[in-house]
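All the exercises in this workshop are built on plain-text protein records. A record pairs a protein's sequence with a compact description of its fold. The structure tokens are whole numbers drawn from a learned vocabulary of backbone shapes. Once this layout is familiar, the rest of the handout is easier to follow. An example says more than a description, so a record of this kind follows.
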Amino acid sequence: MAELDPIIHAESRLRIVAALATLAQEDQITFPRLQELLDMTAGNLSTHLRKLEEAAYVGVEKSHRGRTPVTYVALTMRGRRAFEDYTAQLRALLGA
């Protein structure tokens, strides 16, 4: 059996990826909304998003809504596949 993906397996990153996986493939969520949903501090969320972004599991897009900066977060195709593989491996492990 393959090892569980260590990038996703960390509790906070698993929560982030699981939350993003509930969105439709092309949907994004704002950083503050994701922070609120996960009840995480901005610094903690940023740190884990950076790790997921380095692995190309999430995309982070910064733009402006009027004059206000806004950050959008989305699961990439690679991230979605990694999460699907992770959950399949976990199911196999639990079913064994």
About this structure: The radius of gyration is 14 Å. The first helix runs from residue 6 to 9. The chain has five helices and three strands. The chain has a mean pLDDT of 94.
